[in-house]
């Protein structure tokens, strides 16, 4: 049995004030989530809508669920009634679908724009230029049921800490650029979501406001 409570407090002890933890609970059983919940954790991340749908029914209603994986547009309707934040929006098409489904549910859904900075081809996300283009086009301003709250990215999965730091600092600098140009008067645009189990300590040095940690808290995934 994994000591979820002990692991959770260790991670929280490494987070400076102002950095929130998203506990990545995908593929982990409800009792592990409840162990973290009983220690005060309320924000959990999932990436499969069917698994998430079951957990939403079975677990406490004050949990703030974040969708953290790559989201297909045809799956948005299933999570739109209850999702608190969609962390990985990588296209205008997806943004419009989230807006449409949020409107149907009479909600405003918070989202983060996903950046592709890492050198790995497998990662999803917008290049910096594509993100600049999306924002410059301005269509997002017409979407009243979506609230863009910041940016997220995944650094390269490498042992080279300097490379990880470089990628995260690139994202942090880009956040400043976008904030100044498009969201200067929007207090909701504040999240810098980077850092996972293997690199969250570096992320908090690179101005992350939200880290996504799973394995370090819950142990290896149970498929």
How do the helices and strands line up, and which of them pair or pack?
Blueprint: H1 4-13, E1 20-24, H2 30-37, E2 43-46, H3 49-58, E3 64-67, H4 76-79, E4 85-89, H5 92-104, E5 109-115, H6 128-137, E6 146-153, H7 161-182, E7 191-193, H8 200-205, E8 210-213, H9 215-218
Short structural summary:
The protein is an alpha/beta fold.
Characterize the structure shown.
It is a single chain. By secondary structure, the chain is of the alpha/beta class. It has nine helices and eight strands. The chain has helices spanning 4-13, 30-37, 49-58, 76-79, 92-104, 128-137, 161-182, 200-205, 215-218; strands spanning 20-24, 43-46, 64-67, 85-89, 109-115, 146-153, 191-193, 210-213. It has an eight-stranded parallel beta sheet with strand order 7-6-5-4-3-2-1-8.
Task: Give the key terms.
alpha/beta, 223 residues, 18% strand, eight-stranded parallel β-sheet, single chain
What gross morphology would you assign?
A: globular
Strand percentage: 15-25%
Major sheet characteristics: 8 strands, parallel
SS element count, helices: 9
In N-to-C order, the SSE pattern is HEHEHEHEHEHEHEHEH
């Amino acid at each position: 049995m994994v000591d979820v409570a002990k692991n959770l407090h260790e991670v929280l002890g490494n987070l400076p004030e102002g950095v929130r933890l998203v506990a990545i609970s995908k593929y982990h059983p409800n009792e592990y989530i409840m162990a973290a919940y009983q220690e005060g954790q309320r924000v959990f991340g999932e990436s499969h809508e069917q698994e998430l749908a079951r957990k939403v029914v079975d677990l406490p209603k004050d949990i703030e669920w974040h969708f953290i994986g790559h989201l297909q547009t045809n799956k948005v309707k299933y999570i739109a009634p209850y999702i608190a934040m969609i962390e990985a929006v990588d296209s205008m098409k997806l943004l419009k679908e989230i807006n449409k489904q949020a409107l149907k549910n009479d909600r405003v859904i918070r989202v983060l724009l996903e950046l592709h900075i890492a050198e790995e081809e497998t990662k999803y996300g917008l290049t910096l230029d594509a993100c600049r283009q999306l924002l410059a086009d301005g269509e997002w301003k017409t979407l009243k049921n979506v609230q863009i709250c910041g940016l997220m990215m995944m650094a390269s999965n490498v042992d080279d800490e300097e490379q990880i730091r470089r990628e995260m600092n690139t994202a942090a600098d880009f956040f400043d650029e976008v904030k100044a140009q498009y969201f200067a008067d929007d207090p909701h645009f504040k999240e810098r979501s980077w850092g996972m189990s293997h690199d969250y300590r570096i992320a908090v040095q690179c101005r992350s406001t939200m880290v996504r940690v799973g394995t370090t808290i819950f142990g290896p995934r149970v498929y």
